[in-house]
Write a structure and sequence with these properties.
With 263 residues, the chain is an alpha/beta fold. It has a single domain, classed as Rossmann fold. It has 8 helices and 8 strands; from the N terminus they run H-E-E-E-H-E-H-H-E-H-E-H-E-H-E-H. Strands 1-2-4-3-5-6-7-8 form an 8-stranded mixed β-sheet, sandwiched between helices. The termini are far apart.
Length: 263
Amino acid sequence: MKTILLSTLLFLSATALFGQEIKIGFKDSIQSNILNENRKFIIKLPNGYNESDKSYPVIYRLDGDLNLYVETVGVINRLSFMEELMPDMIVVMIENTNRNRDMMPTNTSFFKSEPGAENFKKFIEKELIPHINNAYRTTNEKLLCGQSLSAIFTLYYFLTSPESFDSFIACSGGFPDCEKYFINLTNDFLKTKLTETRNIFLTHGLTDFLDPEGVIKGQLLSFTKKIESKENVVCKLKIYEDEGHVPFQSLYHGLRFIYTTEK
């Protein structure tokens, strides 16, 4: 009887445990007047946020979905708690509505619609960031991370509004059918004067199926060489020999680069 009772209690305890909902964040949204639509995003607050009055830096990650969200939170937890390399931070994952429109700053052979990158940038600067700053305890430090198509947008953001973020991470970016456009943006950027140091970290995989002839790799090498010459910019391109499109460790190595550089 004692054995049966003990087994029953253990079963009920396990059932209660595994029946509990595990929460690591929540969804929010704002109505954008600039984009004329409701934009959703996922928020992760740092551990102990509600029990303190501490303020935190914010990482804004594009292409926000649940899978990328879990990956992002895991990387930040490892670097902030296990490796103690960086502070914990607020995570804001911006979900897509019309990805091609929002990420492309110019027309290409595969994107012939009206480019919406500038409006999307204005939405982030004038609506989303002020909302996050008003709703949560934030420091002035902000990071922007994009991948693939949203890495193109991240590079566009860096070249046109470098003062908006402290650091930029562009995973598997490039200039598909718009290299001349970005060369002109880069040349204009090199003529500007930055008042504060900005970090930019780029990644590329040598087995990327979108770059079978190494054209994108060449673009990124040329771009990095130019950016490295710019005063008040710390730039690094990491090339992975055995990785394909959007190397899995891009965010991890990007954050390590940013916070090792700052020390």
